Amino acid sequence: MNKFSIQWLCLLGLFIAPCNLAHADLADTISKVKPSILIVGYYKSTNSPRFALRGSGFVAIGGNMGVTNAHVLFGPSEDSTGFDLVVQVRGPKGELQMRQATVLEQDRLHDLALLRFAGEPVPFLALRDSNTVREGQSVALMGFPIGGALGFSPVTHRAMISSITPIVLPAATGQLLTEKSIRSIRDGSFDIFQLDGTAYPGNSGGPLFDVESGEVVGIVNMVFVKSTKESAISQPSGISYAIPSNYIQQLVQRQKAN
Q: Within a 10 A sphere around the Cβ of 11, how many other Cβ atoms?
């Protein structure tokens, strides 16, 4: 009896024991994805605490390259004097290891940043062609919600692809257009994933992945997209968003070509 036959029997109430099959699949996938999750932040020896978490990330290729959102990094208006960009990874025994990191490239249009970090290679996640993603598809997201306030253990949320929608929400009037939304229209709008799962600002940069294979289909984005997509809404919603993985793939391919 295959998995799909069991799931149908579960729905009909004719088969009970293995009806937690989907949960078991996700549990296995979480174990596979977890070692590739990065804590992204800045270290300054004179600060207390010395490390400040800025967002999540994940290892994408080669074991020493990570991906996060560009807005997770210090912006031009922020004073970065004395701060070192670092990532934290889990060692073989589960211990956190701090690694020096450098920025290889930023894609501001899609709010992406590609990092290289020092030390031993870390297991990396495969990128799936995001053009294969369909509305209604089950996915999961992993990261450090609320800026690590819940601890430095990756947290997983289930979600569904609620909609594949343009990043720019048309404004009812010109007065509701923001500088960012105008720039997005000028540079070229692109489709994003709207999710029904809950994500928080600390989740920014974490992977959105297939619940069965663990392949990455997108990168969670809770600041850049929300301020663009919801610029015409006076009361922002709790909807979550993700940038499709094909834009990450383009970033990775440019680095391979160099």
A: 10
Q: Rounded distance, CA 110 to CA 106, Å?
A: 9
Judging by beta carbons within 10 Å of its beta carbon (0-12, 13-18, 19+), is residue 177 exposed, middle or buried?
Answer: middle
At 171-210, the pLDDT tens digits run 444 444 455 555 555 556 799 999 998 888 789 999 999 9
Q: How many residues in total does the chain contain?
A: 258
User: What is the rounded distance in angstroms from the CA atom of residue 242 to the CA atom of residue 216?
Assistant: 11
pTM of the model: 0.82
Q: Is the dihedral of CA 12, 16, 21, 24 positive or negative?
A: positive
Overall CATH class of domain 130-257: mainly beta
Q: Cβ neighbours of residue 48 under 8 Å, at least 6 residues apart? A: none
Structure tokens that stand for 239 in this block: 């909807």
